[in-house]
Amino acid sequence: MSERELRERIAMHGQSLFDRGLTAGSSGNISVRLPDGMLITPTNSCLGRLDPDRITKIDNVGNVVGGDKPSKEAFLHHSMYQSRPNEQAIVHLHSTHSVAVSCLANIDAENVLPPITAYYVMRVGTLPLVPYFPPGDEKLAGAVEQAAKISHAVLLSNHGPVVAGASLESAVNATEELEETAKLFLMLRGEATRFLTPEQVRELSK
């Protein structure tokens, strides 16, 4: 796929996520890996109103070589790509239900959400919780890089999910599945719930 096509797909998916309420205002960012760097949505940009020509291009050493000023969370994307060399795209949102779960006390930091559905297990799998850091704190980069060695999806405490995929479409699909599962998890709290068994999870992971 050409760089031009990737720019247009970032804008298309950004608008879809925004229109369906999965991100608000200028929150969230999307990136796609390139052979010579990455494309990433600009800082303070609304995912619902992206101009493909203004999406930032960064080279492999971090220099901006095209488009507007990059998202201030570009370092999160770089850290995850470092840990996951086979992933080609990353979506980071402040989606409501995922953020709500990231604020809960007494959740399992090694794997935040239980296996509620087969689709969650197949598209997300393990979801480690990354400790809280203030916005823009580059110490978050090391924490994300470490957590990403375990899973292609991580949840930032009191912040939101960061999800990588083998393509932009797979990263978006996994992020949406995570948000829907977070919503189910909150709906089911306090109810007797039948999760998938360890054997059922292993079967889906084959």
Q: How many strands in all?
A: 8
User: How many domains?
Assistant: 1
Give, in spatial order, the strands making up the sheet with the most strands: 4-3-2-1-5-8-7-6
Q: What is the CATH-assigned architecture? A: 3-Layer(aba) Sandwich
Keywords: Carbohydrate metabolism, Lyase, Metal-binding, Zinc
EC number: 4.1.1.104
Protein name: 3-oxo-tetronate 4-phosphate decarboxylase
Cofactor: Zn(2+)
Index terms:
about 15% strand; 3-oxo-tetronate 4-phosphate decarboxylase; OtnC; L-fuculose-1-phosphate Aldolase; about 35% helix; globular; about 210 residues; single chain
Strand and helix layout:
Elements: H1 3-19, E1 29-34, E2 37-40, E3 56-59, E4 64-66, H2 74-83, E5 89-92, H3 96-102, H4 118-123, E6 129-130, H5 139-147, E7 153-156, E8 160-165, H6 168-188, H7 198-204
Parallel strand pairs: 6-7
Antiparallel strand pairs: 1-2, 1-5, 2-3, 3-4, 5-8, 7-8
Helix pairs in contact: 2-5, 3-6
EC number: 4.1.1.104
Catalytic activity: 3-dehydro-4-O-phospho-D-erythronate + H(+) = dihydroxyacetone phosphate + CO2; 3-dehydro-4-O-phospho-L-erythronate + H(+) = dihydroxyacetone phosphate + CO2
Domain Class II aldolase/adducin N-terminal: 8-186
